[in-house]
Amino acid sequence: MSVFDHPEFDNHEHVAFYHDDEAGLSAIIAVHNTNLGPALGGCRMWPYINSSEALTDVLRLSKGMTYKAAMANLELGGGKSVIIGDPRKAKTPEMMRAMGRFVDSLGGKYFTAEDSGIAVSDLATMAEESDYIAGVKAHYHYNGEEADGNPAPSTAYGVFVGVRASVEYGLKSDLKGVKVAIQGMGHVGYRLAKHLHEAGAQLFVTDIYPEGVDKAVAELGATAVAPEEIYGLDVDVIAPCAMGASINDETLPAIKAKVIAGAANNQLAREEMGELLRERGILYAPDYVINAGGVIDIFHQRKESSSNEAMREHIEQIGTTLKAIYSRAEEEATATNRIANTMAEERFTAKG
Ligand code: NAD
Asked: What span, in angstroms and rounded, lies between the C-alpha atoms of 11 and 271?
């Protein structure tokens, strides 16, 4: 299998493969760029069909983390790890400990954290073997909620800050009475709804399961809508907080909202959707910029001299960063997602 000729290879600094037969572990770590600091990126466990599919994922995701860390004003680079296997069937404590040893073997060049298929409890097992495991000792809180290492509360707060900044920039308004439609009432979506409700926004919510929606209707006075209705609603903001590619050729024509700002990763089905949004006068908050609250939280968890206030202030910079992206995009008549990429590259290559 070729790494250097791989279509997703982008001058990655370090790609390591690891196999531990006894522990049943086959894993890959990719470190994309460490110009700004050691690489941070979650560990994903997934039933990849083969190692080639796993390599594609780890190369792509580690690069994304470099951009995300740079735009979150973090002294961190981008990395990612993948374990080949079904997390519901193949995961064992021995495998997690072996993964901890693999992370440790890079000597601090790469820190891992949570991602799909890996829980905080798995990270705790990895941490028995390595100091380079992040996301296991959160001690920050929002709305009285105790933190357990799960970054969703910080992600939600960052998205809230980002929605507020986007509304200020695009609609010249605060959040009072602004109509926001949230797609997905999961870990992030529900918490975002709560922040927005407290700021006076009017909420429309949807999910493919009823629990979160019913709770938002009962506790936050939200209006429930069917999943397919969300795009065409007469609202000011759409906040995608469910799956990727929700902004695509089918959904775009229906959108009436003037702002798209939410937590989901890879919201645009393809990069060019950013330009189509710009042409339609829709302000798009680049996903990896607005959803960086969780990564910022993980960074502060590891920082000796940090505090709840320092972390919140750092997360609040997401608003300032988005406004800088919006004004440069306007000046250069370019899509916001492209401007975000350019700004990230300027930051992480300048340090090289
Ligand atoms: P989650 O799984 O808790 O919530 C997602 C919700 O979306 C679920 O309730 C699910 O039922 C719903 N959903 C799925 N398909 C849907 C559809 N077609 N229409 C409406 N609802 C649908 O996940 P989460 O942790 O809340 O994350 C939400 C998004 O934000 C994901 O894309 C995730 O990758 C991204 N994200 C999360 C974090 C974090 O800290 N949790 C950080 C960065 C990015």
From this structure: 21
d(CA 289, CA 318): 7
Tokens representing residue 340 in the block: 């975000």
Per the CB < 8 A criterion, the answer to whether 68 and 288 are in contact is yes
Domains and CATH numbers, the chain: 3-65+75-126 (3.40.50.10860), 152-348 (3.40.50.720)
Ligand 1 contacts (CB < 6 A) are: 151-152, 155, 183-189, 206-209, 212, 227, 241-243, 263-265, 291, 294
List pLDDT tens digits, range 311-350: 999 999 999 999 999 999 999 999 999 999 999 999 999 7
CA distance 257 to 43: 35
89 is catalytic: no
User: How far is residue 180's CA from residue 85's CA, in Å, rounded to a whole number?
Assistant: 38
- Residue 162 near residue 318, CB atoms below 8 Å: yes
Residue 53 Cα to ligand 1 middle (Å)? 23
Give the Å distance between the CA of 168 and the centre of ligand 1.
Answer: 25
Per-residue CA distances from 73 to 37, 69, 315, 321, 331 (Å): 11, 7, 10, 9, 23
**Interval between CA 100 and ligand 1 midpoint (Å):** 27
Q: Which two tokens stand for residue 97?
A: 């400990």
What values do phi and psi take at 258, rounded to 5? Answer: -100, -5
Q: Give pLDDT tens digits for 182-222.
A: 999 999 999 999 999 999 999 999 999 999 999 999 999 99
Helix and strand totals (H; E) in the chain: 11, 11
Q: How far apart are CA 137 and CA 149, in angstroms?
A: 5
Q: Where does residue 37 rank: exposed (0-12), middle (13-18), buried (19+ CB within 10 A)?
A: middle
